[in-house]
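Deviation from plan, reported transparently: L263DTV3 complex.
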Amino acid sequence: MPATAISLPSPPVPARDWALFLDVDGCLIEFTDDPDDAGVQPGVVDRLLALSGMLDGALALVSGRRIAMLDRMFAPALFPAAGLHGLERRLDADIVALAEEGGADMRGVVEDARQALAPFPGALVEDKGVALALHWRAAPEAAASAMAFAEGALARLSGYRLQPGDHVAELKPDAADKGTAIAAFLEHAPFRGRVPVFAGDDLTDEHGFEVVNARGGISILVGGRTDSVARHGLADPAAVRDWLGVAR
Ligand SMILES: O=P(O)(O)OC[C@H]1O[C@H](O[C@H]2O[C@H](CO)[C@@H](O)[C@H](O)[C@H]2O)[C@H](O)[C@@H](O)[C@@H]1O
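Because the crystal trials were delayed, the predicted structure below was used instead.
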């Protein structure tokens, strides 16, 4: 039975035998109206690098963003990462893409999405190549139109699924999710054989929580969602940074 975040116990302090997986938006960093305005607070990168050293490198970012965008946000660090909700992966040097860039069908959907959201100032279309996000954080009145557009567009995109999120609807290939990405990392050094720990806030993170729970790990819901399978909770990104030991 899912529990409310407020009833979830806090996670233990990070331990040397963990494989630590961290979601980004809404978990490590606060939400902003425009995804391009989101930034990583001072001290976060240095602390994550220190934690990665403590874990012999077993720390990865697991995000809906592209890995190239994560690299810009967390520069100069290049952490192991899963991007696009698991469709991109980097264990050490190279980024492996599990789905091809969107073709003509996707280009048409992107153009039509821009038209569908044009009447709603502040609503945004984020073109991620193989995936597409329709955002309405700054235009809540666009929510129903964005969801209706995304549901309708699925018929035009073979092999795609709708990934709902926090003030966002995303269209992405159904080839992977955050759970399959975490499971794949756990097959390889330095992640293999460690206690999997995953912190995240959104519906896409539930796939990761399920994998971590099934392996006896530690799942951590950030925020107050009430429909999660996570077994631990933290209130917000500031609490996540405190838990990780980021200096204030
Ligand atoms: O898996 P995550 O790292 O949490 O990424 C999920 C999506 O995050 C971004 O959108 C979210 O954050 C934006 C910036 O704060 C916010 O404006 C938006 O409302 C949120 O949904 C990102 O833009 C997406 O591509 C990610 O999939």
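The longest strand covers residues 160-165. We consider this an acceptable substitute for the interim report.
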